[in-house]
Design goal:
Structural class: alpha+beta
Order of helices and strands: HHEEHEEEE
CATH class: Alpha Beta
Largest sheet: 6 strands, mixed
Strand order of the largest sheet: 2-1-6-5-4-3
Radius of gyration: 14 Å
Number of domains: 1
CATH architecture: Roll
Length: 129
C-alpha cells in the first residue's frame, strides 16, 4: 500500500489493512504478495524461533499455511510518523486442522521510501482456557 509522502502518522485502519494483506497472502499461498509486504531486513520472533523474510516467504513452498483467520482487539502505537506498532489478537485455522488456534501478535510497520513495510513481528500463542 503506497501512501503519499507526509509526516502524518497512519491510522489504525491503514495499518490493519496492510496486516490483513499479509494474512490474505497466507490464505492464498501468495508468496509474492507476502514478500512485497515484508522489509528485506524483516525479523520474525515465533514460538519456533527466529525467521527472516526468506523464511517467512518460504513457508509457501508447498501450499497455503492458513485456511481462515479473524483479527480483533487491534491497537496501534505510533512511535514516529513513519514507524508504528500494531498489536492484535489473531484467531486462525490451519488447512486441514479441525480447530482454531489463537495468538497475540505485534507487528512493527515502517514507512520506507514512501511505502509501508513490515519489519518485525512477534507471535505469542494463547493457551486454551
Amino acid at each position: 500500500m503506497q501512501m503519499t509522502e507526509n509526516t502524518t502518522p497512519p491510522t489504525l485502519d491503514d495499518i490493519l489493512s496492510l496486516e490483513q494483506q499479509v494474512w490474505a497472502a497466507l490464505v492464498a499461498g501468495n508468496a509474492q504478495a507476502d514478500r512485497a509486504l515484508l522489509s528485506p531486513d524483516f525479523l520474525g520472533v515465533y514460538p519456533t524461533g527466529f525467521a527472516n523474510r526468506d523464511d517467512h516467504v518460504g513457508q509457501f513452498a508447498d501450499a497455503p499455511t492458513m485456511a481462515d483467520y479473524k483479527l480483533s482487539e487491534a491497537k496501534l502505537r505510533v512511535l514516529t510518523p513513519d514507524i508504528v506498532l500494531l498489536s492484535y489478537r489473531a484467531d486462525y485455522q490451519r488447512p486441514g486442522a479441525p480447530g482454531w488456534e489463537v495468538m497475540l501478535i505485534s507487528s512493527l510497520w515502517e514507512r520506507r521510501h514512501n511505502v509501508w513495510v513490515n519489519s518485525f513481528s512477534q507471535d505469542t500463542p494463547l493457551e486454551a482456557k
